[in-house]
């Protein structure tokens, strides 16, 4: 067993987190959230999404967020861009990286973005082209990699097939998401083992949800497979749209605690993240979803 | 990596769980809890504690609980017995196994049970003798194996030293408890590796708390070390006395979900446990501490 010596965390709270929160939040608070996360030492922050506010009201004002934040040197500020229109707006806002989003489940793709997996990949081609022209890298997400709310189990080969396509299209990194948190460590290892056979291991990331309490066990399993990039969300912002009231994104604080315990460097200050998580949880009027934060504030 | 093919779960909800709950609970409900857990398929249930009700009011009436339960064939009903008086009462109540409780931390031992580790072990000698005469096996607990609220880090060798003594005194099995939930997977592996060098691996159990969200990751790490007995608590009953409001015992439901996903047999019906956990949580007026239960009831 050789674990990575360093891990890069992709802080997704301001995007994947906030977009699933019920309480509205102002641009001013979004800017403050991103700025405070920068100060914690995160080197990659997903700061917004250039989608129609009709579909995702929480992501309205992403251009203003990008205009308002204090860009720290060495930090990548990324945004989700579902189509060319979104990509153009994101590039105009000066994003450091754009992200595209595909599913490993055909039914999920149809229900979530109204098109087949193949059609979604076609839709990304002009996004990739626009990003290439602007000299901005692209990150790919694949959802439902360990299970789908409609189809149930998803074959690792199916995930690998989508990952290969995203990689061939030019995605710099591909994040494999357990969108509904149903995975367990053995399945996680098989998944990364299968996908790493066709996409370089150091271009893969793990994105775990804690809906069934398995996120950190799965993350440890992925570390054992040599994966060294993980997505997480401060205070566990986000929740699970398929089980309202249940947990969603794994909390950055809990991931940081695990990695610190394993002696793996992240460059992120856990105490500072706990502070930011407490602030944003209060602002949203929700309980802090991080167990580390809860333990520290109860103690 | 070869994981155990089967795991035995020690359900500690009725003892370690309830004794840390704030709401009072009647003997009738305790009996029902134990009976329903028996029906779930658990083969080992810690059903009470023979301690002074002055010290642990929630454990009053353990003799009545043992008199009232329906004993399923093949199920061990155990009780905690801190001293000879408790052991005699437990044996008179017809317990299937008694348990003694030592600490790996000298300061914790002093503060928790008012004596040194050495004195606590001496106190167990007559308990062991009485149990031997009665033909009842003894289980040993060691607390603070991955950290102490007073001393901080605890050396694995210190845990091994206590484990060796309990084993030499005749303990059939020794449960290593991360009492304050501070451990992470690497430390867990080192701990079990160290202790298994001096006590047979198949006589060791893992007892993890989820205070910092690490319980299942640690449990997976222990499985990778070949440990095949784990303590858990239905609905995560118990909480953490060192961080009121934070999580304590890992929820049996979440452990079962992990083990099912790994294809490891337990003989326990997860759906049934979710039902019992919902009932007892309602009875205690507390939120269900199992993420699996929360996901299933929110979905």
TrEMBL record, chains A, B:
It catalyses: (3S)-3-hydroxy-3-methylglutaryl-CoA = acetoacetate + acetyl-CoA. It comes from Pseudomonas eucalypticola. GO terms for molecular function: hydroxymethylglutaryl-CoA lyase activity; metal ion binding. The keyword Metal-binding applies. Belongs to the HMG-CoA lyase family. Keywords: Lyase, Metal-binding. Pfam families: HMGL-like (PF00682). This is hydroxymethylglutaryl-CoA lyase. It comes from the Bacteria. Its EC number is 4.1.3.4. Residues 7-274 form the Pyruvate carboxyltransferase domain.
């Amino acid at each position: 067993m050789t674990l990575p010596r360093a891990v890069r965390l992709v802080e997704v709270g301001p995007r994947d987190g906030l977009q699933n929160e019920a309480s509205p939040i102002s641009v001013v608070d979004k800017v403050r959230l991103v700025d405070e996360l920068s100060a914690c030492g995160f080197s990659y922050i997903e700061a917004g999404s250039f989608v129609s506010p009709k579909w995702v009201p929480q992501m309205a004002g992403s251009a203003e967020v990008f205009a308002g934040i204090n860009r720290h040197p060495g930090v990548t500020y990324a945004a989700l861009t579902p189509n060319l229109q979104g990509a153009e707006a994101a590039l105009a806002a000066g994003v450091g990286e754009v992200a595209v989003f595909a599913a490993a489940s055909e039914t999920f793709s149809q229900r979530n973005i109204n098109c087949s997996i193949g059609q979604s990949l076609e839709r990304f081609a002009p996004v990739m082209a626009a990003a290439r022209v602007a000299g901005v890298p692209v990150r790919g997400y694949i959802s439902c990699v360990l299970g789908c709310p409609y189809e149930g189990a998803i074959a690792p080969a199916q995930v690998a097939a989508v990952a290969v396509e995203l990689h061939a299209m030019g995605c710099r990194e591909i994040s494999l998401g357990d969108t509904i948190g149903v995975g367990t460590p053995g399945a996680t290892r098989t998944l990364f083992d299968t996908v790493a056979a066709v996409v370089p291991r150091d271009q893969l990331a793990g994105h775990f949800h804690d809906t069934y309490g398995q996120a950190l066990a799965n993350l440890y399993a992925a570390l054992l497979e040599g994966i060294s990039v993980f997505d997480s969300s401060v205070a566990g912002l986000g929740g699970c749209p398929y089980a309202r009231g249940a947990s969603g994104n794994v909390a950055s604080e809990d991931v940081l605690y695990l990695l610190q315990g394993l002696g793996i460097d992240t460059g992120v200050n856990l105490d500072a993240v706990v502070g930011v998580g407490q602030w944003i949880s209060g602002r949203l009027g929700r309980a802090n979803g991080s167990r580390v934060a809860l333990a520290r504030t109860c103690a």
